[in-house]
Amino acid sequence: MALQATSLLPSAFSIPKEGKSGSSSKDSTLFGVSFSDHLKADFNSSGLRCKREFNQRVGAVRAQTVTATPSVTRSAPEGKKTLRKGSVVVTGASSGLGLATAKALAETGKWHVIMACRDFLKTERAAKSAGIPKENYTIMHLDLASLDSVRQFVDNFKQSGRPLDVLVCNAAVYLPTAKEPTFTAEGFELSVGTNHLGHFLLSRLLLEDLQKSDYPSRRLIIVGSITGNTNTLAGNVPPKANLGDLRGLAGGLNGLNSSAMIDGGGFDGAKAYKDSKVCNMLTMQEFHRRFHEDTGIVFASLYPGCIATTGLFREHIPLFRLLFPPFQKYITKGYVSEDEAGKRLAQVVSDPSLTKSGVYWSWNKDSASFENQLSQEASDAEKARKVWEVSEKLVGLA
Ligand code: LMG
Ligand code: NDP
Ligand code: PMR
């Protein structure tokens, strides 16, 4: 039986109920809070709606310029309509969750996966050893720690003539043992710069392509995490995520004339990662508010489970890497294998039933998906708008 998360806690450490809920009727026993007794989040509430930027939807049918890409449907011999292969970009597909997702999607034969990675050779080897069918993937270079590289990737992708049906923002770095901040090419603290700002620019620039796609369900997925949500036990392990008033972000996270941390505080690598995940989850919701109704694109985030064996923990001390997997497997029961997590994310990409936009998906112990609730900060519409506006300036979109 899964250990109740609350039983791990002294009472002074209990988790306040906060935030807006999803509409799940299922509860997780691991997260230390009951999800079903919260009010349903109303993302469509007019009070939350932001000014729309895209009033005109680009025509539903995309003019195909490349012969290699068949149109959305074609007649099968017996006259039944079959869907063309979906085209999905997955960032950070060279290892862990991204690789497992690429594999799960490519194996169905229904998807062509563009593995958007910073290390071409590593990705090629990973794809081969995972047995991903050759005809179902393409590797394209993307270094999210450089905005020039993001722009170059977008140009290359557009030139390839492939449609974009789903974009998965999955890549991340986690630097829990760093004493001093390190920086992206533009001088942003590396974790927020890569995990949030790189993906923010990438998804803004590729939104147009998602809009143009004639695929029936177009989706933008940004991977979130439980550790950014302070309405959970995991999110209360110090240091806790907190974006504060965004003064550090507004100052450019450069550690010179501004702090390297979003909230303006002293550098803490673990907190910077958790803050970046809050930005990821806020960005997804802001996309939803700004673009879902007009474009029909589905925006989603998720917590895939604790995949304790991935490369994410490569910078952690060896003792942590040794104890973390058994701790998650036998104590919290939050552990999930890379394969299983890959199937979960693949579901968010392609499952015809997961078409609700603005949702943060999680899975219960029977591996059934449910709409989870985000913490108060991770569902704060005003903060989402501010993060969006400040980020726009930092990446040169405003
Ligand atoms: C910060 O530390 C770091 O400072 C920062 O650099 C970054 O890494 C960040 O979030 C990442 O963490 C936070 C610190 C304080 O976290 C810890 O988790 C330290 C571990 C404390 C436990 C030490 C026990 C060591 C003995 C191991 C023996 C157990 C074997 C387990 C595996 C067996 C499998 C069969 O965090 C806190 O303040 C914690 C507050 C929460 C209190 C909850 C207490 C419940 C403890 C019950 C579980 C104990 C198992 C520990 C396993 C540790 C693996 C992570
Ligand atoms: P991995 O370290 O295995 O994968 C991270 C991927 O991101 C790698 O492919 C890595 O490339 C890539 N990456 C890192 N920096 C850059 C960059 N500058 N440009 C391009 N790609 C980059 O970790 P996970 O699979 O665990 O993480 C995947 C996602 O899952 C992350 O968003 C993480 O926050 C999330 N997540 C993970 C959980 C877990 O328990 N592991 C739990 C909850 C969420 P390279 O191979 O070249 O290093
Ligand atoms: Mg956590 C139910 C409890 C639960 C879950 C699901 C996670 C997930 N963690 C839980 C509990 C605890 N963790 C407890 C009680 C502790 C104190 C012993 C604890 C500690 C801990 C550390 C030190 N946990 C961690 C770390 C990390 O360095 C990881 C991290 O915070 O990365 C930012 C981590 C994680 N715990 C998780 C998950 C999913 C992580 C990986 C973080 C992520 O990908 O977002």
Keywords:
binds NADPH dihydro-nicotinamide-adenine-dinucleotide phosphate; 33% helix; alpha/beta; binds 1,2-distearoyl-monogalactosyl-diglyceride; 10 strands; globular; disordered N terminus
Summarize the structure.
The chain is α/β, with parallel strands linked by helices and 398 residues long. Helices cover 33% and strands 12% of the residues.
Cα separation of the termini: 51 Å
Shape: globular
What is the radius of gyration computed over CA atoms, rounded to a whole number of angstroms? Answer: 20 Å
Mean pLDDT: 85
Report the total helices. Answer: 9
Give the low-pLDDT segments. Answer: 1-76
Beta strands, count: 10
> What hetero molecules are in the model?
1,2-distearoyl-monogalactosyl-diglyceride, NADPH dihydro-nicotinamide-adenine-dinucleotide phosphate, Protochlorophyllide
Strand content: 5-15%
Helix content: 25-40%
- Elements, N to C (H/E): EEEHEHEHEHEHHEHHEEH
Spatial strand order of the main sheet: 5-4-3-6-7-8-9-10
InterPro entries: NAD(P)-bd_dom_sf (IPR036291), Prochl_reduct (IPR005979), SDR_fam (IPR002347)
Subcellular location: Plastid, Chloroplast
Function: Phototransformation of protochlorophyllide (Pchlide) to chlorophyllide (Chlide).
Pathway: Porphyrin-containing compound metabolism; chlorophyll biosynthesis
